[in-house]
Design brief:
197 residues, eight-stranded antiparallel beta sheet, 8 strands, single chain, 37% strand, globular, alpha+beta, Protein Transport Mog1p, Chain A
Length: 197
């Protein structure tokens, strides 16, 4: 499977969240629950997508994947990935969506040391069933090094607001600075693929 195909599974994830499992298995040895921006997030879904890609999603205890307002996603590649390529692919994906979604827009920021990138973006959806929503996502791209081994993490945070798209987009835009700061300052836990994977 090519890098482009593997990342497509991850990069489109913001628009195709998966149903929660009864008992999700912690594949990445991350102690839970995770405290993020004053909210506790609990493991709700996990999957070894391939031999090198492992994904886990977390929700607040009182939320469901079908109508969540906040979600955390860890997409961990147990190999080295070309950062620039991953970031460019993500930006291109959102630019394609923007052709038919007037609320879609994307920004890219690089850390001062050049070891991390953040892609943050807005999208909207008006499903046939259920409420319309605007979603704000922050994807943090991180190259991890342990000894001589390199791995790659895309840590994603999604926040949704339901109802009128215009007012939801304005409200999320006002929260952007705070949400970006929270992601930048979040201390990524030590990740280790469970031995039985």
């Amino acid at each position: 499977m090519t890098f482009r195909k593997i990342t497509a599974l991850v990069l489109i994830s913001a628009f195709s969240f998966v149903k929660a499992q009864e008992n999700a298995t912690d594949l990445l040895s991350i102690p839970g629950p995770i405290e993020y921006d004053g909210t506790e997030f609990f493991l709700s879904w996990s999957k070894p997508v391939s031999k090198t890609l492992f994904r886990q999603q977390y929700l607040p205890s009182d939320e469901r994947i079908e109508d969540f307002t906040q979600l955390l996603d860890f997409s961990f590649f147990n190999k080295e990935i070309e950062m620039d390529l991953a970031v460019r692919q993500k930006v291109e994906d959102i630019q394609k969506i923007a052709k038919s979604d007037k609320f879609a827009k994307v920004n890219v920021a690089e850390s001062p040391d050049g070891k991390e990138y953040i892609v943050d973006y807005f999208t909207s959806e008006s499903p046939e069933k259920g409420d319309s929503f605007v979603e704000y996502n922050i994807d943090r791209f991180i190259t991890l090094e342990k000894g001589n081994a390199k791995s790659f993490l895309i840590l994603s945070y999604a926040k949704r607001m339901y109802g009128d798209l215009k007012s939801s987009a304005k409200s999320l835009a006002r929260q952007r600075d705070h949400l970006m700061t929270t992601m930048i300052e979040y201390k990524v836990p030590d990740i280790k693929v469970a031995d039985n994977q």
